[in-house]
């Protein structure tokens, strides 16, 4: 499969994460300066030069488990904390959103436009920070350099690699259900109408040529769809009209996000194959994580800046209930470093993982004050 | 001159095909091209199906009415490497004296007896330390004995610069056991070969910047399916483009032929499967085509489709994320 998939996967999932966090920060009435700080810190960590360097190296995609660990780290790059249940929900929403975008891309190459849509929006979040803006523009330049040169065939392979990553994920998302882009069985709607991809002709025509290459006859046939010609190609420049809406922010304060867990992924057989990955595989993933997260350079919060907990659900009780009722097959087991034998060799990773205090058990509901203090102690 | 399609049912109530019993799969189908292989065994009243899930492929047998009988899962051979490799294709090769089941991955080529029970040969592909993902475009030709594992790599054909996507063969007219062959690649280029003691390149058909995902060969006609949804029909001996069909709104994932009647099936990511009738004009021998049937597999990104009998009266379809093989039969 393609070794150029990871940057696209990471940036788009990261973009979706920021959309969701932004919406929840506003819904939870977090003060503007705190909210801005959280987004700034996360974006700054995401686009860190060392981290991007590692990301852009040609490499195979690693497991969902490994990738989830990176987003856990990223979400905690600032003064904000998330409980396990909220982190699970955040990751579910991120992955289903990007799966939808990849599936509906008209051309395989359009996944690059989706990425640019995410980057354009990210720049909107950090308008008043020229340093971070420069970092994002730098990443933009890197994307153009790497992906501007690759063929349609390689983009097709990237698309297939992404779809392999998202295979068998059918979590139902309320916004998607409401907008009728997802069916009640969790499958996405694939419309058979609208503009054809740029570079594709509207189906329905048969053209016949003679041996000299001259067209001699045209026949029409009933295709069955209702397509029209593409109006315009999206821009791949630093600034421009992307035309494609996939990858733009679909959340707003008035459209809360819920996921439905029941009825998701009935196919246990295909999912369990991932969670019983052999140990040698886990070692490679740990090396990958060490390299990647080593470049993250997360600053520990110093000084009296008070942290806060973000809840992806409407109430604490809802969050607790979600934690307890999450189906077995959908649990994202964060990689447990104790389980591997090469702990000594992964000293750097051990140090990083030690800093990363993801609660394995769902927290019991206590007063907000106690929660905050407990979390601050763990830093 | 533009003529409306006069063939086919005018009344939408009259359908040529109807959905028949689906066959459940252990794992969903992966979003690969040509992700369904069918082996028809009419003498044993059986049909075998092969589908790639990802790290595994499933091979199963079913009765004529679609009732599943036996199934087996195959994996990529163990070896040194970074991550669990994925299977790229599972395919039955029907040879004059035997049938082999071939499994390909970035690690190599595995050949089994037709039911997948015994691996008879393993050819490692040198990928170096880093999985470069760049395929050399070489076509490997193996000598297969009538029985046993004594398979030998006999030739490496150079004709492509980008990864090979599909290969099609047809017994050459008038010569027993000798086949003609077409190979297609990621850049959309096609090579037409004549076999013999060695393969000779007959003609090369240039691409146009879009991958050719699937190719078929029938009575001197090359049918090619492309990433822009077009099906092209070429004269095999000269490489001349005779017919260009704007067949689909998304990338074509599979083409298949029912050789007895010259029916061609095209399936694409736009959820449609189309059936076409190929023929040659009695006057001047030019290639002709007519559209016979279109089937919309709702909300399914089709990844494989094959006829289930040589007369094209039934076909099967796989789709990304779908945990069943859909079957269609003539009414």
Order of helices and strands of chain A: HHHHEHHHHEHEEEEEHHEHHH
Spatial gap, N to C terminus of chain B: 34 Å
Residue share in β-strands of chain B: over 45%
Per DSSP E runs of 2 or more residues, the count of β-strands of chain B stands at 27
Q: Describe the largest sheet of chain B.
A: 4 strands, antiparallel
| Biggest pleated-sheet summary of chain A | 2 strands, parallel
Number of helices of chain A: 14
How many angstroms does the end-to-end distance of chain A come to?
A: 39 Å
Average pLDDT number of chain B:
86
Ranges of chain B where pLDDT stays below 50 over 5 or more residues in a row are 1-13, 128-134
Spatial order of strands in the largest sheet of chain B: 2-27-26-25
Rounded to the nearest angstrom, the radius of gyration of chain A is 22 Å
Order of helices and strands of chain B: EEEEEEEEEEEEEEEEEEEEEEEEEEE
Protein described:
The complex is a heterodimer of chains A (379) and B (331). With 379 residues, chain A is mainly alpha-helical. Chain A has one domain (5-191, 234-260, 280-333). Helix content of chain A is 48%, strand content 7%. In chain A, β4 (205-209) and β5 form a beta hairpin. In chain A, α1 runs antiparallel to α2, α1 crosses α5 (84-104) and α3 packs antiparallel against α11. The longest helix of chain A has 22 residues, at 6-27. With 331 residues, chain B is mainly beta. Chain B has no helices and 27 strands. In chain B, the strands form seven sheets. A four-stranded antiparallel β-sheet of chain B has the order 2-27-26-25, with no helix packed on it. Chain B has a four-stranded antiparallel β-sheet with strand order 3-4-5-6, with no helix packed on it. Chain B is globular and about 50 Å long. Chain B starts with a strand and ends with a strand. At the A-B interface, α8, β4, β5 and α10 of A face β1, β20 and β24 of B. β4 (205-209) of chain A pairs antiparallel with β20 (241-246) of chain B. Chain A: It comes from Heterocephalus glaber. Chain A: Pfam families: Oscp1 (PF10188). Chain A: This is Protein OSCP1 isoform 1. Chain A: One of its GO terms (cellular component) is plasma membrane. Chain A: InterPro entries: OSCP1.
């Amino acid at each position: 499969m393609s070794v150029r998939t990871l940057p696209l996967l990471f940036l788009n999932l990261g973009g979706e994460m920021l959309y969701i966090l932004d919406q929840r920060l506003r819904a939870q009435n977090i003060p503007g300066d705190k909210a801005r700080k959280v987004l700034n810190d996360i974006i700054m960590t995401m686009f860190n030069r060392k981290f991007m360097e590692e990301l852009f190296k040609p490499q195979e995609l690693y497991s969902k488990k490994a990738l989830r660990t990176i987003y856990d780290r990223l979400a905690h790059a600032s003064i904000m904390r998330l409980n396990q249940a909220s982190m699970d929900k955040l990751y579910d929403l991120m992955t289903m959103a990007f799966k939808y975008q990849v599936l509906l891309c008209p051309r395989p190459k359009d996944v690059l436009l989706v990425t640019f849509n995410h980057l354009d929006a990210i720049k909107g979040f950090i308008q008043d920070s020229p340093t971070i803006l420069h970092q994002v523009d730098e990443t933009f330049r890197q994307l153009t350099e790497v992906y501007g040169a690759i063929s349609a065939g390689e983009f097709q392979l990237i698309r297939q690699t992404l779809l392999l990553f998202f295979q068998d994920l059918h979590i139902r998302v309320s916004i998607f259900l409401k907008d009728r882009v997802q069916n009640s069985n969790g499958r996405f709607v694939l419309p058979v109408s609208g503009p054809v991809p740029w570079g594709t002709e509207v189906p329905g025509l048969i053209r016949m040529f003679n041996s000299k290459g001259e067209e001699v006859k045209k026949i029409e046939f009933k295709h069955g769809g209702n397509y029209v010609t593409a109006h315009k190609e999206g821009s791949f420049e630093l600034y421009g009209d992307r035309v494609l809406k996939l990858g733009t922010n679909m959340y707003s304060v008035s459209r809360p996000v819920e996921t439905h867990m029941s009825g998701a992924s009935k196919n246990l057989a295909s999912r369990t194959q991932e969670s019983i990955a052999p140990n040698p595989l886990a070692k490679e993933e740990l090396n990958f994580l060490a390299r990647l997260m080593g470049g993250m350079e997360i600053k520990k919060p110093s000084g009296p800046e008070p942290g806060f907990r973000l809840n992806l659900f409407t109430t604490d009780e809802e969050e607790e209930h979600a934690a307890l009722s999450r189906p077995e097959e959908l649990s994202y087991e964060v990689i447990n470093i104790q389980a591997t034998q090469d702990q000594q060799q992964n000293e750097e990773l051990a140090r990083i993982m030690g800093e990363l205090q993801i609660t394995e058990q769902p927290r019991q509901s206590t007063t907000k004050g106690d929660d905050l203090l407990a979390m601050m102690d763990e830093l | 001159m533009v003529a409306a399609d006069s063939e086919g049912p005018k009344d939408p109530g009259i359908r040529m095909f109807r959905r028949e019993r689906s066959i459940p799969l252990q794992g969903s189908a992966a979003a690969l091209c040509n992700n369904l292989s069918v082996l028809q065994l009419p003498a044993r009243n059986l049909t075998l199906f092969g589908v790639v899930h990802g790290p595994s492929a499933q091979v199963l047998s079913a009765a004529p009415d679609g009732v599943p009988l036996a199934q087996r899962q195959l994996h990529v051979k163990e070896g040194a490497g970074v991550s669990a490799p994925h299977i790229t294709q599972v395919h039955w090769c029907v040879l004059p004296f035997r049938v082999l089941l071939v499994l390909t991955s970035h690690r190599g080529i595995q050949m089994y007896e037709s039911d997948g029970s015994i691996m008879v040969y393993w050819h490692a592909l040198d990928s170096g330390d880093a999985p470069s993902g760049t395929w050399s475009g070489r076509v490997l030709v193996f000598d297969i004995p009538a029985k046993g594992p004594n398979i030998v790599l006999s030739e490496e054909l150079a004709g492509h610069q980008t990864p090979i996507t599909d290969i099609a063969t047809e017994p050459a007219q008038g010569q027993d056991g000798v086949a003609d062959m077409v190979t297609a690649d990621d850049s959309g280029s096609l090579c037409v070969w004549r076999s013999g003691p060695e393969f000779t390149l007959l003609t090369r058909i240039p691409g146009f910047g879009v991958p050719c995902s699937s190719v078929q060969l029938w009575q001197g006609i090359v049918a090619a399916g492309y990433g822009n949804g077009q099906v092209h029909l070429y004269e095999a001996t000269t490489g001349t483009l005779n017919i260009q069909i704007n067949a689909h709104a998304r990338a074509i994932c599979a083409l298949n032929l029912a050789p007895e009647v010259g029916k061609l099936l095209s399936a694409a990511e736009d959820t449609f499967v189309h059936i076409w009738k190929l023929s040659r004009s009695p006057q001047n021998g030019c290639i002709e085509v007519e559209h016979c049937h279109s089937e919309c597999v709702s909300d399914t990104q089709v990844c494989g489709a094959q006829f289930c009998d040589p007369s094209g009266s039934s076909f099967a379809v796989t789709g990304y994320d779908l945990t069943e093989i859909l079957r269609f039969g003539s009414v």
